[in-house]
Every structure is written in C-alpha cells, then in structure tokens.
Amino acid sequence: RMETDYNPMELPNNTGFEEDLDYRDFEGTDVKDMRLEAEAVVNDVLFAVSNMFVSKTLPCAEDVAYINVETRERNRYCLELTEAGLRIVAYDFDQTDDRLQTPYHETVYSLLDSLSPAYREVFGNAILQRLEALKKESQS
C-alpha cells in the first residue's frame, strides 16, 4: 500500500477519502482500488505541482492507475501507480511508452523530489510552515 497519509497542508474535511481509506484498512477485506489510491496521491501533492490528475483516458483497474503530472518547471509526465509503487511511463499526459524502463518509487514524494527542484522547495516550505504552526500551538 502506498504511503499517502501525510500532508503538511490541511485538507478540507469534505474530501471523502478518509472514510474510504479507513474502510480499506479493515483486517481481511483486502479491498484495493488503484483509482482511489491515485486520487489520494494527487490530493497529497497537488499544492506543490502545476497540475496533477488521474488519467481519464488510460484504463484504471484494481491493480493499476495512471496519473498525469505537470511540474512547476512545466515538464509533463504520465505516472503508473501499482502495488510496486510509482514510475514514469511517458513524458506527456495520457501516454505510455513500453520501451521506457524507469525505476519505481515507493512514494510520490520521492518521485517528485527526483524530478522537480521547485516541488522540493514548495513541499519543504509547507512542512516548515506546518512545524511552525505546531510549535505555536504547543506553546499556547
């Protein structure tokens, strides 16, 4: 299962993903829907990229989903999400290139960190802001 439960920015309460993720964690249900997982990945890091969304043209299944991402540097990628992790499958939206042999990343954070210095900066700043807010909370 992908690690997508940490977000330095507060998500609005009406996303609906919390309930779905809670359901999936019950022992023995073994419910895996990669589209749901992909939506959670997008929600976690959308604030730190120019554009990111689950592909509507490439097929999603229980074991695979595709995510389009455009970094702040304006580079476009199509990512494949499976139990193995995330990897680049094309250098444009809604494409796959079978000749492309890119490594899997366990998390969307490590993948984007390797692709986009601007992502790294925005994400790092968000974490610092969140830590400062927590520090102020604990002091009051």
UniProtKB/TrEMBL annotation:
Alphabetical list of Pfam families matching this protein: GSKIP_dom
Domain GSKIP residue range list: 34-134
Family statement drawn from the similarity comment of this UniProt entry: Belongs to the GSKIP family.
Protein name in the entry: GSKIP protein
GO cellular component: cytoplasm
Classification via InterPro entries: GSKIP, GSKIP_dom, GSKIP_dom_sf
GO biological process: regulation of canonical Wnt signaling pathway
GO terms for MF: kinase regulator activity; protein kinase A binding
